[in-house]
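We were asked to recover a plausible sequence for a given structure. The inputs and outputs are reproduced exactly as logged, with field labels preserved.

PROBLEM: sequence recovery
POSITIONS: 324
GIVEN STRUCTURE:
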């Protein structure tokens, strides 16, 4: 582990006692005893994924994406600090969310959204400070939940208002802990845009500002011929149309995050994009994001082709793209 990484786990009844865990210095102890690695109370992340067999092979591979996120956490500096539970489709027993510190949502949206009938469970968690993160289609619930979503993350994909073009985004990274150690990159994906925000996203992150929506990343379209949906979305917009990654700190302590990319399964092989997501997990769990970000091993061709859903009319082997 990097000796300079500063990640703070949760402790019970903290006193001023120093201890070194895994090459990192933490301060704190259990009552009257020195803190040991076994005493660390891990943060609990629940990854909730779902099926979407209507899309082509290599897209909306939510379960396979969840597996990669979980395995990347296990191979990063978060491994000793975060306990991960991966649930596929809404569970019959919702007690799996008990004691969660954060829920990561990655599944089909709109009328099929998993929260359309389960809003109360997640809202109760958010109200007591449990973080919520939504990736791609999961940020597009049934319209009846639009306002509820904005209380969690500050923004929502709004049908007949937002746009869903496929475009080559050249990242414009804002100052935010989620971007620590992240390099600029270019990636083609179905980046949702022209989001319905609670408030105009703040550019830059200087201090804790509860209730404000912070832009984490926007993008410049570098396609030679921009998609007409892109052109329509940026026309006469207030400048927030290309914000595709944002975060909100609520005054109840809950942290909400949304990234609109993740349509293409190969996006997980982009080291910078994956680092942003892992940084988001750390930030959403109220851990200090390392100065150089949360690194994880490169995703191999074999890994990107594991756990793919069986699709019709045909299955195919995915090829790793080159990212700039």
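RECOVERED SEQUENCE:
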């Amino acid at each position: 582990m990097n000796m300079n990484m500063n990640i703070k786990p949760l402790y019970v009844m903290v006193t001023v006692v120093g201890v070194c865990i895994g090459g990192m210095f933490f301060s704190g102890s259990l009552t009257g005893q020195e803190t040991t690695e076994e005493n660390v109370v891990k943060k609990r992340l629940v990854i909730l994924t779902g099926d979407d067999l209507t899309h082509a092979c290599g897209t909306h591979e939510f379960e396979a994406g969840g597996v990669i996120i979980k395995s990347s956490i296990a191979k990063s500096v978060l491994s000793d600090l975060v306990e991960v539970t991966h649930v596929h489709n809404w569970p019959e027993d919702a007690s799996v969310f008990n004691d969660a510190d954060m829920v990561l949502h990655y599944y089909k949206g709109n009328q099929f959204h998993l929260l359309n009938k389960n809003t109360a469970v997640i809202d109760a968690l958010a109200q007591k400070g449990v973080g919520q993160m939504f990736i791609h289609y999961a940020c597009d619930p049934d319209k009846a939940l639009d306002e509820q979503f904005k209380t969690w993350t500050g923004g929502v994909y709004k049908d007949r208002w937002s746009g869903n073009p496929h475009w080559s985004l050249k990242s414009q990274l804002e100052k935010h802990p989620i971007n620590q150690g992240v390099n600029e990159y270019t990636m083609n994906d179905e980046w949702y845009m022209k989001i319905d925000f609670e408030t105009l996203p703040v550019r830059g992150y200087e201090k804790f500002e509860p209730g404000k929506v912070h832009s984490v990343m926007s993008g410049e379209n570098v396609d030679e011929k921009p998609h007409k949906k892109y052109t329509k979305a940026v026309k006469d917009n207030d400048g927030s149309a290309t914000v595709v990654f944002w975060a909100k700190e609520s005054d109840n302590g809950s942290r909400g995050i949304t990234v609109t990319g993740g349509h293409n399964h190969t996006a997980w092989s982009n080291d910078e994009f994956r680092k942003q997501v892992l940084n988001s997990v750390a930030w959403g769990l109220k851990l200090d994001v390392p100065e150089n970000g949360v690194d994880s091993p490169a995703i191999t061709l074999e890994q990107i082709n594991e756990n793919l859903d069986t699709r019709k009319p045909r299955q195919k082997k995915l090829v790793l793209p080159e990212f700039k």
